[in-house]
Every structure is written in structure tokens, then in C-alpha cells.
Amino acid sequence: MGAIPDHIREGLDILFVGYNPSIRSGETGHHYANPNNRFYTILHQAGLTPRKYRPEEDATLLELGYGFTNIVARPTRTAAEITKEEYAEGRDILRAKIARFRPKVVCFVGKGVYEEYSGRRNVNWGVQEEPVIPGVIEFVAPSSSGLVRMKLSDVAAIFRDLKELVESIPK
């Protein structure tokens, strides 16, 4: 079990950034593969995908303009297992990826992911005022983990804001 591949290229509409892979993702090699993770359900309910995709189809979302990476590559049971050193290294790697590939929007799937990336605290959902990488829109959304206590409909509503944002960006 190990790191899972990024699905990333230039010209993405959205680059989704998670904390790190789950144990299940590390075993399967696919993003958001834990059966309790609601990521693909949320994308579909928010109207970002025409149907509910399966984790094994994560690479095919590149065709929709969506990519995947994580701030930390090592799979763990929970984000609490990630060390400060791993976050520091991951932050530098992630900033370099974003600067290189220049997605239109980077969606941080979890406030904590964005806080570790940006060094900021007490951030709100949605677009962040001052992006770390100038010219790239940073959007903070709730984690899709089954451990999150928000209602699925409330999480999907925030992801609908992401959809509307992407649709408002000139092609």
C-alpha cells in the first residue's frame, strides 16, 4: 500500500485537493475509495457530474476537467495521523503543482486542508480572498468524509456554489 497517483494536467477547471489517501485508497490506488466517503455522491448531487462516478473511475474525471491530488501522499486511517513535517513537505509540493498546472479553481476538500496549505485559520467556505498562488481561485469546501457531521444536502449546496463559480469563469 502506498501513495496513489495524482490525476492532474494543465487546463483543469477544478483541481480537488484532499488531506491524504485513506487506507482503502492506498490499497486500491483510487481517490476517495473508502466506502464511507461521500465525495462522488456530493459531486453528482451538486451537479458537477452527470452521474455518480465510482472511485475506480477517478481518472476519467479528467475528461470533465477535474483533477485530484492530496496535500500529503501517505495513506492513513485519519488525518490526525499526519505529522507536521508531512504537512510542511506536502505544502511545498502542492504549491509547486498548482503553480505548474494552473487550474482555474483549486477546491480544498476540507477546511483543515486549506489551513495547512495556506497557513491561515478561521477560513470560510467558498472562494478565498487572497490566493496563495496569484491568478488561481482557491475554494474551500467541506470534507467528504463520512466522519463529517454536516448533512449531505448542506455539503452538496456548498459544492453547487463551486459549480456556479466554474461556470462563471470565461472559457
UniProtKB/TrEMBL annotation:
Family matches, as Pfam families: UDG (PF03167)
An annotated Gene Ontology molecular function: hydrolase activity, acting on glycosyl bonds
InterPro entries per record: MUG/TDG, Uracil-DNA_glycosylase-like, Uracil-DNA_glycosylase-like_sf
EC numbers, comma separated: 3.2.2.-
Enzyme class: hydrolase
Keywords: DNA damage, DNA repair, Glycosidase, Hydrolase
Protein's name according to its UniProt entry: Mismatch-specific DNA-glycosylase
Record-linked Gene3D superfamilies: Uracil-DNA glycosylase-like domain (3.40.470.10)
